[in-house]
Amino acid sequence: MSDAAGNLSTLDVYERWAPTYPPRAHNPLMRAEQMALLAKLPAVARRQVLDLACGSGRYAKLLWARGARDVVAADFSQAMLSRVTAGHRVRATLTALPFATGSFDLVVSGLAIGHASDLAVCLAEIARVLRPGGELHYSDFHPEAARVGLTRSFRDATHQTFTVPPAGFELEEHREAARRAGLTIDSIDELRVGREVSEPFDGSETFYRRWHGVPLVFVVRARR
Predict the structure, then answer these.
(1) Half-sphere exposure for 178 (CA within 13 Å, toward CB)
(2) Dist CA 180 CA 70 (whole Å)
(3) Cα torsion at 111, 113, 114, 120 (round to 10°)?
(4) Kind of pairing, strands 48-52 and 70-75?
(5) What are phi and psi of 130, to 5 degrees?
(6) Does pLDDT of 164 surpass 90?
(7) I want to staple 215 with a disulfide (CB 3.0 to 4.6 A). Which of 72, 97, 172, 190 is the partner?
């Protein structure tokens, strides 16, 4: 089936995806990403937390269940926000956060920061809303995956196939943007086909054989 996305913007595509986008890690890649991100997450009990570019709110739910004092779920897509069931919902872009300086102890963002129009501004905004000593934990799609032609796609309720517009920045751009924002990166973990991403699925033998070793996602831990 042909891709129906055409010239739709990233926002338009996510608005179409929202009705069928589960608020959980719903495929092997996301489950590996979530495991890696949560493995280094600090204790969140009694902390003020931002789930940035929250989508349908999977991390907001997890953070709330872990005892966060308050969770804010922010996303540019109103359709995605309507799916969120945990925390306070706020519409916001990655480069203009409508929060006071020093509002949060922790910012979490899953597979979204690559959609920022300006990575340096995005990380500067995150650093601004973090309290001193606060932490940023985020994941993103690896630029190498895009270079070899791997994409994200989905089917909507009418069975049309849509591909999310390519996005992302080189790892060195993430490092430089963090440095300029006053953030210290403690670790960047890469999740590779057939290694960290190895859960079986229909057709997985062929996929893992063809793309073995290609990094699909990276996970960043940083602090202010």
Answers:
(1) 23
(2) 29
(3) -160
(4) parallel
(5) -80, 140
(6) no
(7) 190
Measured CA distances, 130 to 62, 94, 174, 202 (Å): 20, 14, 18, 42
What span, in angstroms and rounded, lies between the C-alpha atoms of 185 and 13? Answer: 31
**b/e for 137-160, b at 16 or more Cβ within 10 A?**
bbbbbbbbbeeeebebeeeeeeee
Note the pTM of the prediction, 2 decimals: 0.94
Q: Which domains does the chain have, with CATH numbers?
A: 10-211 (3.40.50.150)
User: 78-83: long-range contacts at Cβ-Cβ below 8 A with a sequence spacing of 24 or more?
Assistant: 78/15, 79/14, 79/15, 79/18, 79/19, 80/14, 80/15, 80/18, 80/21, 80/54, 80/55, 80/56, 81/54, 82/18, 83/18, 83/21, 83/23, 83/55, 83/56, 83/57
CB 165 within 8 A of CB 5: yes
Query: Using 50, 70 and 90 to split pLDDT, how confident is the model at 166?
Result: confident
The pLDDT value recorded for residue 4 is 53
| Averaged pLDDT, 173-193 | 98
Query: Taking Cα atoms as reference points, which of 25, 11, 14, 20 lies closest to residue 158?
Result: 20
H/E stretch holding 15: helix 10-17
Q: In the structure encoding, which two tokens stand for residue 147, read together?
A: 């270079």
* Tokens found for residue 170: 């080189």
